[in-house]
Design goal:
The chain is an alpha/beta fold. Helix 5 links the parallel strand 4 and strand 5. Helix 4 packs parallel to helix 5. The protein binds pyridoxal-5'-phosphate. The site of pyridoxal-5'-phosphate (PLP) has 17 residues, from strand 10 and helix 11. The site of pyridoxal-5'-phosphate has 17 residues, from strand 10 and helix 11.
Length: 403
């Protein structure tokens, strides 16, 4: 599945590089389109926002699942209409909303965010349609819900709906659920889709609204290890089609979206790295390659996780020890409570602490993370999902500030 001739040619010029193959991306798109009927697709841009990958995908009438305001902007600049760009991410800032305004359909991630969007629209004297990300009362693997950093719990959505409905500058016209990634069994996704349609019916019947769109999220996996089977897209397409027929009455006039990041581009790329040196050390052959951890971090993480256990070994400089960082809340608040600290990236791995006992935290509080002077900024994947990145500020001894 890789273009050996081009790799050898480029290898003469470069010691390490990514190579993406458009033919494979197009094949993947064709596979999806041929097997799903009346389904719209969204590309999850955070999987790979290389300009050519985006061009190829968007030219095929696939919309954007944007995980940051910069991704919204990027999709918009790629000539997608605002109706084709869905901005779903937790923790959108005022600046994010300002950047994305009028360029996308916002998917609110919490009750606070629904209200925040309403306030912004009020100021602008605009009325917009929005979607809401729901944390449903089911997962891929269970008929019970779980606590999540993403979305509004289904129960809370029903409970608060009257209050939300009274907000004058927004109208909820769609829902979004993205539960898990990298599933290889069609059966699991089929059950999940069925649960999604039941949820849709429940929302429409109970709340007396018509959903103009439901975004089913992603889940379609790709083979990573050699034992992984190729996902049966044809089978899933059939299952989804028959579910659409079964729920036809409820889905009349509703656009259905399926998201995918990895399925479109995962197998289209290879990372190529050249051997820089070899040596024998105490009988063991050592190979030195160009740009691995800093060029393509995930293979290094495999070795990292393998050595992880209840008593993890040091893996400097990525992992020092379990209690290497402290979190200090800048607040007058004396009362404490148990919380989880997550980041705003669209991945559950963006979490820095669970079950921490901290002073009660409110929106706008500052949280200080210690030990950030070494192996901190330089080790962090700031390109991931095109977030507005943190800046680095230097205070000189005379207190002048250097940006
Ligand atoms: C990251 C993300 C995806 C992409 O998932 P894949 O498993 O790569 O297809 C889809 N939807 C949302 C909301 C995401 O955050």
């Amino acid at each position: 599945m890789f273009n050996e001739k081009v790799i050898i040619e480029q290898g003469e010029k470069y010691d390490s590089f990514y190579l993406y193959d458009e033919k494979i991306v197009l094949e993947n798109i064709k596979n999806l389109k041929e097997n799903f009927f009346n389904i719209n697709f969204l590309y999850s841009m955070k999987a790979n926002h290389h300009p050519e990958i985006l061009k190829t995908i968007f030219k095929e009438k696939i919309g954007a699942d944007a995980a940051s305001s910069n991704e919204v902007l990027n999709a918009y600049e790629n000539k997608l209409n605002k109706e084709e760009i869905f901005y779903s991410a937790p923790g959108k800032s005022d600046k994010d909303i300002e950047i994305a305004f009028n360029k996308c359909i916002f998917i609110a991630d919490s009750i606070n965010e629904i209200k925040k969007l309403n306030t912004v629209c009020k100021k602008k004297n605009k009325k917009i349609k929005i979607g809401v990300r729901i944390n449903p009362n089911f997962t891929f693997y269970s008929s019970d819900g779980v606590p999540s950093k993403f979305g509004v719990d289904e129960e809370i959505f029903f409970e608060k709906f009257d209050e939300i409905k009274s907000l004058e500058n927004i109208k909820i016209t769609g829902i979004h659920v993205h539960s898990s990634s990298q599933e290889l069994k069609t059966e699991i996704l089929k059950n999940y889709y069925e649960n999604m349609f039941i949820l849709t019916k429940k929302i429409q019947d109970k709340l007396k609204i018509k959903l103009e769109f439901i975004n089913l999220g992603s889940g379609i996996g790709i083979p990573f290890s050699l034992e992984d089977k190729i996902f049966d897209v044809k089978q899933l397409g059939k299952e989804l089609n028959s579910l659409c027929n079964k729920f036809k009455k409820d889905l009349e006039g509703t656009n259905i979206y399926v998201e995918t990041g990895r399925y479109l581009c995962g197998n289209s790329g290879v990372y190529v790295t050249k051997v820089m040196d070899t040596k024998i050390s105490r009988g063991k052959k050592i190979i030195i390659l160009k740009n691995t951890f800093n060029g393509f971090i995930r293979p290094s993480l495999v070795e990292f996780v393998k050595s992880y256990s209840e008593n993890p070994k040091m893996n400097e400089p990525l992992f020092t020890k379990k209690d290497a960082f402290q979190y200090i809340v800048l607040t007058e608040e004396k009362e404490t409570e148990i919380v989880d600290l997550y980041g705003n990236l669209c991945t559950s791995t963006d979490v820095i602490g669970k079950n921490l006992n901290l002073p009660k935290i409110k929106i706008g509080d500052l949280i200080i993370v210690t030990n950030a002077g070494c192996y901190a900024s330089v080790l962090s994947p700031k390109k991931f999902s095109s977030q507005i990145p943190p800046i680095e500020i230097y205070v000189k001894k005379d207190n002048t500030i250097i940006y």
